[in-house]
Amino acid sequence: MQPDGGQDDLPATSRLEALSDAAFAIIITLLVLEIHRPDAAPGKLAEELLKEWPSYLAYAVAFVYVGVILLNHHYMFARLCKLDLPLNWINLGILGTAALIPFPTGVLAGAFRDGNLADQKAAVVLYALIAGLMSAAWLPVFPHLHRHRKLVKPNVPRSMFAAQIMRPIIGILLYVVAGLLGWFVQPVLAVSIFVFIVAYYAWTSQGIHAGYRALAASPGSSGS
Question: pTM of the full predicted structure?
């Protein structure tokens, strides 16, 4: 019989993965609702649609952002075999902060569409704050998995999760810089950094690279 706290006493990851997938699906759906529907006068629809470019850009960046979070989340859980209570709470923090992304996305698009400079400054600071919180929500998970090997599949290298902690730290620092530049210098600079951060997370995403490796290794693949 396993002693209390043994691996057999811990639940599998399947239910939490299902909950997380459903949450990410809802978040992605809500992003579409932040695209403003123009109330155009007859003959002005094309003009009004073109004025909505901030909504289109904000949606595209946020969609990629949530997609990268989803892929990294899948990559992480594919290497886990069990859950404990702290990991459940950490995962809720990740989902809770990710679920906030549609809100600052809509505010940011609205500020650049209809607001003045003061509105744009407030919007970029709000976005930097919430996106920074989303990055910070990933900080506890990597040390926790590094310390609790019973949650991780045996074939996963011990150093794998410990090495991942720099990505959210870099993201938080960049969001702080973006918020300061957006408030004190120019909001467009902050938006440029937001786009760069998404590109950085996508380029360094273990979830994306793992997908490429799996595709290359699959039968019939032409990859080397």
Answer: 0.84
